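Practice set, problem 2.
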Amino acid sequence: MPIKHFLARTAARRDKQRSLRRRGQTAIVPRVIISRPASWRRRLLLGSALVLAAGATGFGLYIAGQLSAGYDSLHSAGRIRDLAAENARLEASNAKLTGAYNATTTQLDIERGARKTLEIQVHKLEDERSRLNRDLALFDNLFPTAKQNNLPAIRSFRIEQVVASATPATWRYRVLVMRDAQAQGSFAGEFQLLVSYRLNGQEIQAQTPATGKVSEPLQFQHYRRVEGRFQVPPGAVIVGATTRVVENGRLIAESVFRP
């Protein structure tokens, strides 16, 4: 009997421990709350609100950072717009002024061209007048005179500047040599030209044909025009020129030009 009683008590004790263990396991199980899932509209609204809140927070932090650094983007943006408008206004004004300048420049070019054309025409008319005067003197001297001989004479001697703006300046000489209308045969001699300059306070004479020392054969019957050009040395000024007609070393005629 004692053994059965002991086994019964042991079994009862085991059952009691199992019951307590089951109770302990049931007591620590967490409560499960079953709720309805949120709709997609609520989720969308909640997400949009979170995004807007994050954006506003970021923009506020951005502005606060700029202000703390001494930079105002809003004011700068307004200033940039004002400067862009001012730049557009200045560009329009510049385009208008450029158009007026181009029109004025074109008008000035036209006037310069017309003035140059008039100067060329005046120069041609002066040349034509000089030629007519020389021809008139030629025809006047072709008539017989009381004193008739075979010796030539210098009827006209001129020196004029061709191009004033050129460096060195270029000059042209023109000489008319004539004999009486009743002169017989032809004259054979030599034509000479010698130009004098003032350079550094001293008077000098040309040494080369290019600067005005000319010597060439001269042969004609009644008249002969002699023309040519020479250049003034840099810094020199013409003070005079002399032209001569020489026959076998003997001076036949001479004429002096003074500017």
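Problem 2, part (b): a different protein.
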Amino acid sequence: MARFLLIIFLLVSLNASAQDGSIDTSFGNNGYAITDFYGGWDRASMVAVQEDGKIVVFGFVALSGGGYAEGLLRYLPDGSLDMTFGIDGLVTTAAGDYYDEYFNSLHIQADQKIITSTTFSGRPEIRF
């Protein structure tokens, strides 16, 4: 089963109880957060942490009815989906039928707004 998979090793440095380099097993499900968008082929490309410890993940999502989308999701610091973000923690933006995509950036501004940029088939697109 294809999944939007994120293994959070970076949280080791965010939790004082895991400073020895071990996985923080209090995060998600025994240290891992796995989220499936629509049951298709998904890929996480970038991760950013907001000032409040919420974790934003940006990637590629195969839509259930066909086509592709940019996908964003946000986890709470404990690894559960932030249900106040988008629809049940997930946001998708239609990317058309392009497959050759390059996820250029994920940035959290000082005001905590999220900026992403993606290039599809050599054509840059900036999304806010």
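Answer key, part (b): The longest strand covers residues 42-49. The chain is about 0% helix and 45% strand.
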